[in-house]
Specification:
There is one protein chain. The chain is an all-alpha fold. It has one domain. The two termini are 20 Å apart.
Length: 91
């Protein structure tokens, strides 16, 4: 069951990554609308230092590093589960 659930979860994560890759601005806005209940995340590029110091590409790469780290860790767990299901390590 873990292997089937993993396939679905990785498919969802892949779809999320594809959406972020196609339209990062829309993805970023949707992310903030889901996880923040106020508008404090809306920053003015003319006055807010964070926007002046950190370019959009930083956030783009940050999202893909997080998704990549998640995928790598999950694929490792998935590979170990598959190996165990095939009679790998006997406890």
């Amino acid at each position: 069951m873990f292997l089937k659930t993993s396939a679905v979860l990785m498919g969802l994560a892949g779809a999320l990554a594809f959406y972020a890759f196609l339209d990062f601005n829309e993805f970023w806005t949707m992310f903030h609308h889901i996880f923040f209940r106020n508008n404090l995340w809306l920053l003015d590029p003319n006055t807010d230092i964070l926007i002046m110091m950190v370019p959009e590409t930083f956030f783009f790469h940050l999202v893909f590093r997080i998704l990549g780290g998640f995928a790598l860790g999950y694929l490792l767990c998935l590979g170990l589960a598959w190996y165990q299901s095939k009679g790998g390590v006997k406890a």
